[in-house]
Design brief:
Layout (H helix, E strand, L loop, with lengths): L1 E3 L2 E3 L3 E4 L6 H11 L3 E5 H6 L6 H9 L2 E5 L6 H15 L3 E4 L12 H13 L3 E6 L3 H10 L3 E4 L13 H10 L4 E5 L5 H9 L4 E4 L1 H4 L4 H21 L25
Parallel strand pairs: 3-4, 3-10, 4-5, 6-7, 7-8, 8-9, 9-10
Antiparallel strand pairs: 1-2
Helix pairs in contact: 1-3, 1-10, 4-5, 5-6, 8-10
Length: about 260
């Protein structure tokens, strides 16, 4: 089980609802992933006029918890306004906080992110901030009141996997009580397993499933990878070594010779 702001979930795979070939495939992929939390872009759905309509009905049919996000927002003021609207429309204090600082890399504006997080926490939101793997930013988000922190593995949609394993490992070490979710840049199930093996509590992804040749099959693959990664972490991974160690001992066998 994994906890997000006191709520328990059995799935450690969070999934987005954008860019699928069809709404039906989106539903099937979410079910195949076993996801219990899905992200929804308020700005995109509002622009499409689907809030309260067909799209929202599809989400309700899934029986999942909705995590609205502020995707596309580029200022603290815009983020706060969008979050308040999301709370009114979705009836939840949860918000995935995104403040985009660069249009090319979609890298978060970490200064605006910390400021917005502090304002939203004061306004009784439970914030899921999307950030880089920078330790000082994560510490500031924790101090602002974020119980969940979501560093990227790589830029959104890049499918490059964990580019800075050492920094991600350091976050896990320095924030033992925070719920950490790797968000963005995962392109293969092995990337998700890698994050869980580092001790991360969950992963969030969208493009790797939505843009796959078989979205439903890929969702299932990610589900298995997340389960395998977590089981490996809990079982105790063998650490890397600089020398070879035989798996079959030779001491006491006819092949062992003492050297005088």
């Amino acid at each position: 089980m994994v906890a997000f702001y006191g709520k328990q979930f059995s799935s450690r795979l969070l999934i987005g609802t954008a860019a699928y070939p069809s709404p039906a495939i989106m539903q099937d992929a979410v079910r195949a992933a076993g996801a219990e939390i899905v992200t929804v872009s308020l700005r995109r759905e509002s622009a499409g006029g689907r809030i309260g309509g067909a799209f929202w009905s599809l989400i309700r049919e899934l029986g999942v918890t909705v995590l609205p996000n502020t995707a596309g927002c580029r200022s603290v003021r815009e983020v706060v306004t969008t979050a308040q609207l999301a709370r009114e429309l979705f009836g939840t204090s949860w918000i995935k906080l995104e403040v985009i600082g660069d249009d090319e890399t979609l890298q978060p504006d970490v200064v605006g992110l910390v400021e917005a997080a502090a304002l939203l926490v004061k306004d009784a939101f439970e914030v899921f901030p999307y950030c880089t793997e920078d330790l000082t930013v994560a510490l500031r988000l924790r101090d602002a009141g974020c119980g969940v922190i979501m560093p990227w593995a790589a830029p959104i949609g890049s499918a490059r996997g964990l580019l800075n394993r050492d920094a991600l490992r350091l976050l896990r070490t320095r924030l033992p009580d925070a719920t950490l979710v790797v968000d963005a840049g995962l392109g293969a199930p092995s990337h998700a397993a890698d994050a869980l093996e580092l001790g991360y509590d969950a992963v969030l992804l969208n493009t790797a499933v939505a843009k796959a040749g078989d979205s439903v099959g890929m969702a299932r693959a990610f589900r298995l990878a997340v389960d395998a990664g977590r089981l490996a972490y809990e079982s105790g991974l063998m650490g890397p070594r600089d020398f070879a160690t035989p798996s079959t001992p030779v001491v006491g066998t006819p092949f062992w010779h003492a050297v005088s």
